[in-house]
Amino acid sequence: MKKRLLILLVAGIGLGLKPGPVAAQKPPLTRQQYQQDFDFFWNTIRTNYCYFASKQTDWEQVRARSRPQLDTLSSRRAFVRLLENSLAELYDNHAGLSTNRPDSRRLVPTGTDIWAEFVNGQAVVQAVRPGFGAERSGVRPGMVLTAVNGVDLNDALRPFLPTSQRGSDAAARNFALLQLLAGDHRTPRTWSLLVSGRALTAHPDEAGMALENISYSGRFEARRLGRVGYLKINNSLGDNGLIVPFDSALTALMDTQGLVLDLRETPSGGNTTVARAIMGRFIKAEAPYQRHELTREETQTGVRRIWLEIVAPRGPRYTAPVVVLVGRWTGSMGEGLAIGFDALQRAKVVGTEMARLHGGIYSYSLPHSGIGFNIPVERLSHVNGQPRESFRPPIYVDPKPGAASKAEVADPALEAALQVLRSKR
Q1: Could you tell me how many helices (H) and strands (E) the chain has, helices first?
Q2: How is domain 220-354+394-423 classified at the architecture level of CATH?
């Protein structure tokens, strides 16, 4: 009997059977399991999402519209799209899934290279991300977008507008515009623009889909600009491994007469451990840097829960003047650092509006499909009570409209930062 079993096993190998992977495959979800997953998703957001009060979203209507679709679901792929469409009704760039499809929209701002908003009915470019396709294809702040991939802008925008709203909201229209311009993970983008009345066609993905695999030479860059130190964080505020090399780089710059901390390439945010580690090198006593509010507790009990997060000093203290640079790709924890330095009165914040990502996010996982999702659960504010997403740098650098000329400063925000430090001498 044992010999016969061995022959069968060998025959199985010869036929290319691979029992390991086959055994690891999970059976497809049932319709009931999809419905249970969606109910968990919908109820978790209803109970915990902390920005409904500032939205026009009718969350009950989102469930009513999704229910008929759940009755016909037959694949994980279709379920992901249903969840994406539901989250889009919040028009919140800080709410998202842990998975995507090839035709899903890129993350805003992490996977984007352009920022535009509606001004007097026109879609006006506010900023372009240095070194990426939008900039390389000639797009500059002040230009007006008129079409995307050959489709008139208003028509191209329509699929991305929320459909379950109690009333109109300009923020929802701007959210849809950013989603449209972000593109998906497989389709090259073509934009039609106007600059000083002249037509311009831009192909930001002509050299390849560079936004799909963004890489950096290191966690940060450190150098000297004359007597001023310069430290730029390269989207690594969520990496605790940044702390030790950052400490070493800052210690090497202790003799400088001022420091520029550049947070303009931190779109993915990070964690408070890294942020507090950075701020702790610049203060001499414990102090609050950010205000938290857990709105869920007030909803459930009628009692507000608000607290301040404290930064403690650590390591050798850098005592010279500091400027923090921010922009549209300063996101989440990068924004927290900016308001923190401002609250601590330890740096001047210079630049433009930031990514305006709402609140502190919590992560959840659906019970059957295992799909993860993140939503803002804590409202975050400056210690003075100003919402983090509405913070504007006290020293504002307005992006220059139109195409750059050789006579213009290559980096106006950095030049403004250096001017601030020169005035402190």
Answers
A1: 13, 17
A2: Alpha-Beta Complex (3.90)
Q: Strand, coil or helix: what is 62?
A: helix
What is the average pLDDT value for the chain, to the nearest integer? Answer: 92
Max CA pair span of the chain? 91
Angle between helices 76-88 and 31-48 (to 10 degrees): 20
Q: Which residues contact 321 (CB under 8 A, 6 or more apart)?
A: 257, 258, 259, 347, 348, 420, 421, 424
Nearest to 325 by CA among 418, 226, 191: 418
Superfamily per CATH, domain 114-212: PDZ domain (2.30.42.10)
- pLDDT at position 19, please? 40
Which residues does residue 288 pair with via DSSP β-bridges, in sequence order? 310
Token reading at 348:
């001047």
How far apart (Å, rounded) are the C-alpha atoms in residues 127 and 411? 13
Going by C-beta distance under 8 Å and a sequence separation of 6 or more, which residues neighbour residue 393? 326, 338, 349, 350, 351, 352, 353
The burial of 171, by beta-carbon neighbours within 10 Å (0-12 exposed, 13-18 middle, 19 or more buried), is given as middle
Question: What is the domain partition of the chain in residue ranges?
Answer: 29-106+359-376, 114-212, 220-354+394-423
Q: Vertex 375, ends 372 and 376: CA angle to 5°? A: 155
> What is the C-alpha to C-alpha distance for residues 341 and 335, in angstroms, rounded to an integer?
10
Distance CA 79, CA 81 (A): 5
- What pLDDT, in 10s, does the model give residues 113-149? 999 999 999 999 999 999 999 999 999 999 999 999 9
Q: How far is CA 350 from CA 109, 392, 416, in A?
A: 19, 9, 7
Distance of CA 302 to the CA centre of its chain: 32
223, β-bridge pairs: 230
Residues 59 and 52: beta-carbon distance below 8 Å: yes
Which of 325, 311, 315, 313 lies closest to 258, judged by CA?
Answer: 325
